[in-house]
Amino acid sequence: MFIVTANEMYDIDRYTMNEIGLNGKLLMENAGRAVSGKIESIIEKPDHICILTGSGNNGGDGFVIARTLLNKGYHIIVVQVVPNQKITGDSLFHKNLLLSFGGTVIVSQQPSEIYEMVRNSDIIVDAILGIGTSGMLRNPIAEIVSIINDTANFVISVDIPSGLPADEGISDFQSVQANHTVILEAAKVSAFLQHTASFYGKWDTVSIGLPLDALQNNVKRGSWTDEMFRQSMPKRETDAHKGIHGRGLVVGGNTEMPGSIAMTAKTALRAGAGLITAGTTEKVIPVAASHCMEATYLKLGETNGNLNDDTAISFKSFDAVALGMGMGRQQVTGNLVRQTVEEATCPLIVDADGLYHLKPLLDLVSNRKGPSIITPHPGEMAMLLDVSVPELLVKPFAYSKVFAEKYHVYVVLKGKFTIITTPSGKQSVNRTGNAGLAKGGSGDVLSGVILAMIMQKQSVFEALCNACFVHGKSADKLVAEEHSVYDLMASDVIDGIAEVYRTLEV
User: Fold this and answer.
1) How many structural domains is the chain composed of?
2) DSSP run (H or E) holding 428
3) YjeF N-terminal domain spans which residues (predicted)?
4) Is residue 478 predicted with pLDDT exceeding 70?
5) Where are the alpha helices (DSSP H) in 253-395?
6) C-beta neighbour count of 106 within 10 angstroms
7) Residue 88 annotated as lining a ligand binding site
8) Is residue 89 domain-resident?
9) CATH code, domain with 308
């Protein structure tokens, strides 16, 4: 599934009409009919449906929806909330077609009239404003949006809730709060932002006939799906052996946080790694080994229970390294992080406290020979960028892209919608997972899945997308079948990986 900005969507529409030759009236017909099909799956025949239309393409889609549903026997009223002179072009064509089919269009901007029609309707279809909106609304539209939010029983928005910005970077706005949004062709960026996603309510997408190559050539953002996971996840050969599935090293842990490295090591093995070695302090080893007997252990140098760089590690023996979980922020530990960055040429995954130590080493990271992967949560990403967390969360796609391109790293920005970004700026959003993952240890588990995936026969980008997918899917299955978002623990997610693999038939 593609994820677009407003400008990208406009460019694709123009290409489709001007270069491909698909008429705008036909595109509007396609859009209205596709949305009508989704609306029919939500509403019931006795429902009284009020379709609110504005100017532009969104209003034109509303006229097509009204004609389609009216022709199928639904109870429809159409309220045009802009003056007649603002209905032009393709929208005017479809308004006139609606009238020719026996439909009626009420033209009103009076709040009292609109309030009564909204109050007396079972379903409101919001086709007022499209993806070109940014900033605060002006009256009378602002007042109409308030009436919808305060009065409507159930709201279905067309493409985007009216007033909601399609793009990131905008924090001041007024928007319809939809119960359901039917998005045209490609999801908009704001569907994946913490401060805007909830306005969509439940959402899905419909195809309106835009050419696939136009989307592929213009959009570098997408969402990972079940089918993409099945297609890209390497299949195990019947004569496979542990040596061909990767030998990974996990470096971390101290006397205060011995569980982190154990969870990462155990997860990596559960997710498919062939061999895992955990490098940690002498006191942590028996604790970790009691939770993960299948790993081997490497005793590293320590100072007062914290890792240091006194031990020479032969990184050439490993296919990938995961670094940082539970290691603490002592300076002596920072020396070990520097050693790893400088000496390891294999893929390097840095998480948790490792990110704190990584900040002064970013120039070294950008010159590494092997792929570098960071897995920050918003607080850690904000620290690396020297911005506030609210600043980051308003523009997570842009910030991730700038950082990834500048330092030649893969960024896995964790959150409700985890954003994976490559050094070339390609991005994917992971939509699996739930609130049960908002608990200590979840990041350590994700690092373990990434370590396992990165050593399989797939690209780094596919490995990261598949790792985030599996991590979230495990949590989803566990909450659906035997746990709740309250009691779910990181160790449960490790065990749930087996069910993901089994049910998705990889």
Assistant:
1) 2
2) strand 427-430
3) 9-216
4) yes
5) 259-270, 284-291, 331-343, 353-358, 362-366, 378-385, 389-394
6) 13
7) no
8) yes
9) 3.40.1190.20
274 and 174 together in one domain: no
Question: Whole-angstrom Cα distance, residue 271 to residue 473?
Answer: 13
- State pTM to two decimals: 0.95
- Residues 288, 139 share a domain: no
Is residue 418 part of an annotated ligand binding site? yes
195 assigned to a ligand binding site: no
Q: Is 416 marked as binding a ligand?
A: yes
- 58 annotated ligand-binding residue: yes
Token digits for 405?
A: 């391109």
Rounded Cα distance, 273 and 275, in Å: 6
Please compute the mean of the pLDDT values over residues 145-172 and round it to a whole number: 97
Query: Annotated binding residue at 415?
Result: yes
Q: Is the pLDDT at 236 greater than 90, yes or no?
A: no
- Whether 170 is covered by a domain: the verdict is yes
Q: Render pLDDT for 313-330 as a digit per residue (tens, 0 to 9).
A: 999 999 999 999 999 999
Q: Residues 313, 393: one domain?
A: yes
Here the CATH number for the domain that contains residue 38 is 3.40.50.10260
pLDDT in tens, 350-404: 999 999 999 999 999 999 999 999 999 999 999 999 999 999 999 999 999 999 9
Cβ–Cβ under 8 Å, residues 396 and 429: no
Tokens 């602002």 belong to which residue? 142
User: Hey, is 84 helix, strand or coil?
Assistant: helix
Range of the structural domain that residue 418 is part of: 238-503
* Annotated binding residue 146: no
Does 357 show up as a binding residue in the annotation?
Answer: no
Position 44 in a domain:
yes
Q: Specify whether 384 is located in the same domain as 475.
A: yes
Residue 226 lies in a domain: no
The answer to whether the annotation marks 159 as part of a ligand binding site is yes
Q: How far is CA 74 from CA 46, 96, 156, 467, in A?
A: 7, 19, 16, 46
- Quick one: pLDDT band at residue 240, thresholds 50, 70, 90? confident
Contact 418, 430 (CB under 8 A): yes
| Residue 279 assigned as binding residue | no
- Residue 506: per-residue pLDDT: 61
Q: Where residue 238 falls among pLDDT bands split at 50, 70, 90?
A: confident
Q: Is 131 annotated as a binding residue?
A: yes
Average pLDDT over residues 195-211: 97
Per-residue model confidence as pLDDT tens digits over 30-45: 999 999 999 999 999 9
